Amino acid sequence: MRKKVHFELSTTQTIMLSFLLAVLVGSLLLALPISSATGEAVPYIDSLFTATTSVCVTGLVTVPTVSTWSLFGQIVILFLIQIGGLGIITIMSGLMISFHRRIGLKDRLLIQDAFNLNTLSGIVKFIKKVLIGTFVVEGIGALLYMTVFIPEYGAKGIWISIFNSVSAFCNAGIDIIGENSLCDYVLNPVINVVTSLLIILGGIGYIVWWDVIRVLKNFKSRKLKCFRNLTLHSKIALSVTGFLIVFGAAAIFIFEYNNPLTMKDYSLIEKIEVSLFQSVTTRTAGFATIPQQNLTNASAIISLLLMFIGGSPVGTAGGIKTVTVAVLMVAAMAAIRNKEGVGIFHRTIARQAVSKAVAVVSMSFAIMFVSTVLLAAVTNADALDIVYETVSATATVGLTRNLTPLLNLWGKMIIIITMYLGRVGPISLVVAFNTRRENRNLIKNPIEEISVG
Fold this sequence. Notes:
Layout: H1 11-30, H2 44-55, H3 65-68, H4 71-86, H5 88-98, H6 105-114, H7 123-153, H8 156-169, H9 189-204, H10 206-217, H11 232-256, H12 268-281, H13 297-309, H14 322-336, E1 342-344, E2 347-349, H15 351-378, H16 383-394, H17 409-424, H18 426-433
Antiparallel strand pairs: 1-2
């Protein structure tokens, strides 16, 4: 008698398929004539590309968002961005909580994997805080945007403000203002500040939010030092984020200071403003106030580094993450100094975290490298433009040196796959296809010394 094969998806496979399902449903909706501004259906490859870049909160677009899609199409894109930023698992869990449905163990495991949490404790409370916090920040962002867009666009400015706020917080970088991103607002202080704050708040991670709020609530005397009372994760995320913003802005300020194509004619304050925004937006946001193809090669390389690193874990940003980079750096310094343990801020980092950091960087680099080679094989674009495109797709950034609209069919397919892999995460991909269940602890291979370096 044949045994029934019982097939059950793992939590990682469920998360990956949920993103894929959102992309496919979104692409079908965008392929409808009602989604097009002209009433004629947009080619499916462009609908698929737009759905993927929205769900993966990347921001690369093959067709202009403002002139290609109707109001219905823009609403679909906005929902896809929100789904991509929060994750389908989070939204479904939020609906279950709203309808007073019980969150079972399997659902809790899904949420834990989706947010890469270390514990199942307080999962329901965490989801509530994430949803409320997200909508509050996006709402405030929209209201601030309205001070600029309503005087300029009238009632339409309300919709533009809402769209921009969600897109900025989710680090998507898609806008419905014009075909040159935010270049028309390069020196507008409200747009620069609000967009930057939304990007940073979305990219810093929800864990850091609640940790900072916890410390501020317990602030009672001058003797209590806020930073010291943060968790190690928050200390690393905030420190690396601050350093990268300042470092990136300083480097871009220096390399673009006399560039006539970007900010040579600006005043000192204006140059600082432009440099800061470029440094922030490269952290997987995708908005641009200066054309990326006009950057000097030095600034482009700095931007590539910032894009590849991205934001912090358990947030809306992509990239290999700030904490990953910090763990790798301190592990390298420990090896150079011949130290056994890896420590930072007077705490020892678990060996498992170091191994995972190495894996994340290795797999992300592999995806980027393969994508770069394949894109170079199907396009005749400049090498720097190709690398900029693939790093932007891998880290779900959305900045381009004007290559995306020029991609052929094969180029679009390569970037679609790269964006998807970048969003679900390289480690998730390996885990999802690893169906071997044996216990590796039963047998251990003998140790043998090798030469490294």
